[in-house]
Amino acid sequence: MAEAGGGKERLLRAAVDYVAANGIGERSLREIAAALGTSHRMLIYHFGSKEGLFVEVVRTMERQQRDLLAELSAAEDDPVEAARRFWARLADPGLWPHERLFFELYGRALQGDPAALPLLDGIVDTWVTALAGPLERAGHDAATARAQARLGLAVARGLLLDLLATGDRAGVDAAMEQFTAMYSATLPRR
Questions:
Q1: In this protein, which residues make up the domain named HTH tetR-type (predicted)?
Q2: How confident is the model at residue 4 (pLDDT cuts 50, 70, 90)?
Q3: How does DSSP assign the chain, residue by residue?
Q4: Which of 30, 75, 132, 162 has the fewest CB atoms within 10 Å, measured from its CB?
């Protein structure tokens, strides 16, 4: 738990852990603050609103996932195997509360909700850039790498949404494996 009046980063880390353990549900900002060991006023001071807090939680989780992708890409010479390992992590049920929050806020931002709109800043491009790097190292030119990265991002997000809606892990994993095989066929031969 964060101490009352704790720093923004400490509160954010506590909020990420809280969402992972509890989801978001219909909790008020006061309930969330109490669970984090702070006041709702401190959360408003640091994040502006409950939605502002949730946007920062999503951004933090997205950054952690991009860091994991970078680690896997650096440790794994084969980009296809790195993609498989990354998918296994993304599809982990432990991340489902975060992913539900992501899709909820993404939908609200797309509907023009002013509190959620900041989530759209870089929500695609940061991932395209992160995913394109390993593709360029595998031999794709920059334009092709970015197009492939965008496609991979769309497939992963679509399959995550499918997984959250259906719970059909086997079906979604089979679809991702099919995509991975198609993706593998596009890689330049070394």
A1: 5-65
A2: very low
A3: -PPTT--HHHHHHHHHHHHHHH--TT--HHHHHHHHTS-HHHHHHHHSSHHHHHHHHHHHHHHHHHHHHHHHHHH-S-HHHHHHHHHHHHT-GGGHHHHHHHHHHHHHHHTT-TTTGGGGTTTTHHHHHHHHHHHHHTT--HHHHHHHHHHHHHHHHHHHHHHHHH--HHHHHHHHHHHHHHHHHHSPP-
A4: 75
Task: Give the CA dihedral 84, 86, 91, 93, nearest 10 degrees.
Answer: 130
Which domains are assigned to the chain?
Answer: 1-48 (1.10.10), 55-186 (1.10.357.10)
CA distance 185 to 183: 5
What pTM, to 2 d.p., does this model score? Answer: 0.83
In contact, 155 and 190? CB cutoff 8 Å: no
Tens of pLDDT along 34-76? 999 999 999 999 999 988 998 999 999 989 888 988 888 888 7
Residue range 122-126: average pLDDT?
Answer: 94
